[in-house]
């Protein structure tokens, strides 16, 4: 029965968060184009807050880990995603023959947005895998705790996935592909939940390091891919709007964590 609860709530949670994010794709094209810069700013705040206020604190507090271990994995993770982005860019250049421009190619040509979209999918998949593990752990403790944890995770994921869909569309994905890939990134939630049910003790030992890798991916995406794009609009009015929207993304994640603590207690 516990396994059934885990499967049900990991599927429902993923469908709910992906559905809410996919609603962005139903917005008319012209309106969506006007909303995208705002949603990218929002995504920066949500990703940084999820990394620094959610994932990393959990990794630091995990029994048996040291700050040096966590920060070492964080540093290695950032380097890993740098190499991954280089590989994505290299493949993109070979496909579009942009390598012929050499090292003096314009930044917009040499660094396509599709790399950011790919990294979002990787980071979101890892994050959702961990969500599945957390849901399973809660259900193995108490069914009521599992339900509340699943609901809180959905509330936490919706604003972040809205930002992720914005990044995917801005990266050049069609509406259909953005919705499909965003939905597929929620499958690791189910996988993490089922695997954790059968091998929770083994997964617990690796949990803080997987959390740290997920944090590294979100930090790298926000700092290396999204923020430079925001700097293309340096005028005061646009900058103020960006700061407010980044703050809104951070605030949403903070409120979701407070709701989680309230629901669990």
TrEMBL record:
GO (cellular component) term, any one: membrane
InterPro entries hit by this protein: ZIP (IPR003689)
Keyword list, A-Z: Membrane, Transmembrane, Transmembrane helix
Pfam families listed in its UniProt record: Zip (PF02535)
Gene Ontology molecular function terms on file: metal ion transmembrane transporter activity
Transmembrane segments annotated in the record for this chain: 6-27, 39-60, 66-84, 180-200, 206-227, 239-260
Protein's membrane topology: Multi-pass membrane protein
Full protein name: ZIP zinc transporter
């Amino acid at each position: 029965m516990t396994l059934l609860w885990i499967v049900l709530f990991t599927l429902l949670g993923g469908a709910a968060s992906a559905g809410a994010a996919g609603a962005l794709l139903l917005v008319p094209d012209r309106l969506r184009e006007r909303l995208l810069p705002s949603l990218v700013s929002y995504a920066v705040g949500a990703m940084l807050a999820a990394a620094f206020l959610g994932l990393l604190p959990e990794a630091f507090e995990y029994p048996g880990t040291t700050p040096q271990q966590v920060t070492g994995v964080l540093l290695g993770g950032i380097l890993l995603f740098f190499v991954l982005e280089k590989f994505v860019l290299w493949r993109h250049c070979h496909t579009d023959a942009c390598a012929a421009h050499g090292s003096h190619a314009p930044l917009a040509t040499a660094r396509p947005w599709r790399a950011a979209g790919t990294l979002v999918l990787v980071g979101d998949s890892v994050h959702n895998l961990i969500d599945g593990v957390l849901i399973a752990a809660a259900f193995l403790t108490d069914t009521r705790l599992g339900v509340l944890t699943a609901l809180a995770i959905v509330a936490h994921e919706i604003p972040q996935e809205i930002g992720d869909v914005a990044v995917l569309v801005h990266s050049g994905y069609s509406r259909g592909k953005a919705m499909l890939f965003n939905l597929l990134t929620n499958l690791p939630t189910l996988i993490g939940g089922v695997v954790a049910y059968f091998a929770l003790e083994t997964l617990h030992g690796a949990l803080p390091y997987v959390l740290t890798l997920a944090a590294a991916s979100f930090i790298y995406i926000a700092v290396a891919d999204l923020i430079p794009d925001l700097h293309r609009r340096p005028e005061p009015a646009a900058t103020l709007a960006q700061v407010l929207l980044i703050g809104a993304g951070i605030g949403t994640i903070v409120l979701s964590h407070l709701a989680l603590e309230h629901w669990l207690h």
